[in-house]
Amino acid sequence: MAWPEGRVFAVPLEGRKYGFGRCLVDPVVEFYDIEADDPDDLEVEDIVGKDVAFTIWVMHKAVNSWKKLGQVALSPAERRRKHEFFKQDSISKKLVRYYTDAHGEQHEEPIGLAEARGLESAAVWSAPHVVSRLEDHFAARTNRFWESMRPKEA
């Protein structure tokens, strides 16, 4: 199944609340700093107009399991946007910035620990982990899955 680029969806959270995300380029999803009781009360344009809480890679299965609310096509600038993540070698602890350019070419560049701490891990999140991350975001607490993936000192 093709990646549903531009899809806006609702993620069910605890307490009958919902968080919201939008599919960008495969497998990048941005999640918004908005929580609601009823996703059908919101227009998709209003959702994507909110601040971005975080941008991560998400499994296709997770995206397809959440309630589709509509589509907001990616603008040319959104298509060209470089989404940067970090990778860390588990043995050497060397860090790299990882991104895919506008032509689909993948790149890795060495970076330092301070720079890596400002990026998300190049890890693909499953549905339960995304739910946990959103719930912790709205509760203003550190997420244990996010914390476990933070870059480590060499």
Q: Could you explain how this protein is built, in words?
A:
It is built from six helices and ten strands, in the order βββαβαβαβββαββαα. The strands form two sheets. A six-stranded mixed β-sheet has the order 5-1-2-3-4-10. A four-stranded mixed β-sheet has the order 8-7-6-9, with no helix packed on it. The model has no long low-confidence stretch (mean pLDDT 95). It is globular, with a radius of gyration of 16 Å. Helix content is 24%, strand content 31%. The longest helix has 12 residues, at 127-138. It has a domain at 7-81 and 123-148.
Index terms:
single chain, 154 residues, alpha+beta, 6-stranded mixed beta sheet, 4-stranded mixed beta sheet
Spans of 5+ residues with little confidence (pLDDT < 50)? none
Strand order of the largest sheet: 5-1-2-3-4-10
Radius of gyration: 16 Å
From the spread of the alpha carbons, the general shape counts as globular
Instruction: Quote the average pLDDT.
Output: 95
Percent helix range: 10-25%
Question: What is the element layout, followed by pairings?
Answer:
Blueprint: E1 7-12, E2 18-23, E3 28-32, H1 44-48, E4 52-58, H2 60-65, E5 67-71, H3 76-80, E6 85-88, E7 95-100, E8 106-110, H4 113-116, E9 120-121, E10 124-125, H5 127-138, H6 144-148
